[in-house]
Amino acid sequence: MRLTSDQRARVDQAAAAEGRTVTEFVIAALSERAGHVLTDRRVFPLDGEQWDRFAELLDQPVVDRPRLAELLARDPGWAG
Questions:
Q1: Cα–Cα distance between 12 and 23 in angstroms, integer?
Q2: Structural domain includes residue 58
Q3: Start-to-end C-alpha separation, the chain
Q4: Its pTM surpasses 0.85
Q5: How many separate domains does the chain show?
Q6: Are the beta carbons of 56 and 48 closer than 8 angstroms?
Q7: Residues 11, 22: contact at Cβ < 8 Å?
Q8: How far apart are CA 4 and CA 6, in angstroms?
Q9: Is residue 23 part of a domain?
C-alpha cells in the first residue's frame, strides 16, 4: 500500500496513540471500515409508514419471471 509521507505520519501517530503496531492498527481500521460498509448494505432503518409499505410489498404474490429463473439456474462458471 502506498501512502504519502503525510498519510504515513498520520497512521504512525494514530497507531502509537493506541499502543499498536502500524500493521495492527491498519488491520483493525480496515476490519472496522469493512464492517460499516457491509452493515450499511444489510440494515436499513424504516419508520412506521415505510415499514408498512415494505411489508405490503413483501406480501404481494410472486411474479413469474422465466428469464430470471433461467439466468439464476445457470452455472456461473466461477462457482467451481
A1: 10
A2: yes
A3: 31
A4: no
A5: 1
A6: no
A7: yes
A8: 5
A9: yes
Query: Residue 15 is part of which domain span?
Result: 5-73
- Residue 17 to residue 9: CA distance in whole angstroms: 12
Residue 2 is inside which H or E element, if any?
Answer: none
Helices (H), 22-80: 22-42, 48-58, 66-73
Query: Is residue 80 domain-resident?
Result: no
d(CA 20, CA 18): 5
The pLDDT tens digits of the residues spanning 6-61 come to 999 999 999 999 999 999 999 999 999 999 888 878 778 899 999 999 999 999 99
Question: Residue 29's closest CA among 1, 69, 6?
Answer: 1
For the record, the C-alpha cell of 77 comes out as 462458471
The full DSSP string for 55-66 is: HHHHTSPPPP-H
Cell numbers placing 63: 411474479
